[in-house]
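Researcher: Structure prediction, please.
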Amino acid sequence: MKATIVRRTPLQDRSTGTVQAILEAATTLLAEPNSDDLTTTKIAAQAGVSVGALYRFFPDKHSIINPIAVERMEEFRLVLEGWFAQKSVQDGPEFLGLVIDAYVEFLDEHPDFRGIALGRQVSASTRERHVGSEVGPAALVKRFMLEPLGIELSAEIELRLRVASETG
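Model: Predicted structure follows.
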């Protein structure tokens, strides 16, 4: 798993291992049903490192979770692209069913994504940059609605996409 290290870049193998353990611990904890109460203390304990070691590399839990969320969103975007490339979509309900099927399958394969997508762990700024109607899966959905289905973009469609994106 890749991450943007905010505080300090690990230079030694041991430090790289610590960062990886922290990211893997967060991923594991995000997959649990009670991931809404995730804290840096819980992540450190799961990783088997001290809270101080965690804070050497990450200033807060968002700096740990945000890169995981961004990576998962990119993976989901690629999954959607693959689904759309394989299938010929003829109408809106069929299209919506395809998106829902892809989403459910991705949630089943990536349990940590459930905590990311349905929880409140991702910072508002990261969520806006990566899941707004102009980026990420929402933009992909918008593109496929406009191109293959021939739906004309209007202020009403933009608003509906934004509401659906933020609700999702």
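Model: The mean pLDDT is 78.
Researcher: Thanks, that helps.
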